[in-house]
Design a protein that fits this description.
This protein has 244 residues and is of the alpha/beta class. It has nine helices and eight strands. Helix 1 (31-41) packs across helix 2 (48-65), helix 1 crosses helix 4 and helix 3 (78-91) packs across helix 4.
Length: 244
């Protein structure tokens, strides 16, 4: 089947790659709500709103200073996330280190389970359709080592021929190398692939620059400028893929 996602090409599409979080699934609620729920178990009462704001800032700072969840220095991302949690609670007004360490450990373990995540309503139907059509499917995600476990718990893992997690491979989007790794695995050219993700800088731009076709899933109404993203390449969900 021949499809065109904006390169003016009429090349057989064989491979479809997906980002994971905010593309296939999302956090159930918000980080602040989940952090607050766990904190209450340890008699720490902080508002979800305050924790959510602190989390956004802490996550951004840590990812900038120690990218890819500290993949080069540690076998797991738990230490990295412990730093994020500690800074989140400190900024929200609580800095008892022993208690925060217990909260952090609980969060790390429970975020590994499906109970903290929610699959988008159309995801299963879209993946079922694409598999029946014979497309090869892969995940390319900036995520820590828990991604496989989460995808399995959400009953998504079996749909994919390959799962590339940035933490495990030691490279992350927007590096072109992580996209090239997937192409190499399947022995394909970029023009035979479509990448679907939610982030212009991490998904759309690097994919397009390599020659992928690309689709942005804008679930939060970002209203991207036409100068940045072709409006024809923006969708609010995965449903357009049912047309392939």
């Amino acid at each position: 089947m021949r499809e065109n996602f904006g390169h003016g090409l009429c090349v057989m599409l064989r491979l479809i790659t997906f980002d994971a979080c905010n593309t296939l699934f999302r956090v159930r609620g918000s980080p602040g709500e989940l952090y607050s729920e766990v904190a209450w178990r340890f008699d720490v009462k902080l508002s979800p709103k305050a924790l959510n704001e602190s989390f956004k800032h802490a996550f951004g700072e840590f990812y900038k200073s120690v990218p890819n969840f500290g993949a080069k220095g540690d076998k797991t991302a738990e230490k990295w996330w412990s730093g994020v949690v500690k800074q989140t609670f400190k900024s929200a007004g609580f800095d008892d280190e022993k208690t925060v360490a217990r909260i952090s450990s609980t969060l790390y373990n429970e975020f590994s389970t499906s109970s903290y995540w929610q699959v988008y309503p159309e995801t299963f139907d879209v993946l079922e359709h694409l598999r029946k059509k014979g497309y090869l499917l892969a995940v390319i995600s900036n995520f820590d080592e828990r991604l496989d476990t989460i995808l399995e718990g959400l009953y998504l893992k079996s749909y994919f021929d390959l799962i590339v997690c940035s933490f495990n491979v030691g490279m992350c989007k927007p590096s072109p190398e992580i996209f090239k790794l997937v192409l190499s695995n399947f022995g394909m050219k970029a023009e035979e692939a479509l990448h679907v993700g939610d982030n212009v800088e991490l998904d759309y731009k690097p994919a397009v620059s390599l020659g992928f076709r690309s689709l942005i899933v804008d679930r939060f109404s970002s209203n991207y400028s036409a100068a940045i993203v072709n409006p024809e390449h923006v969708t609010k969900d995965l449903k357009p893929l049912m047309q392939l």
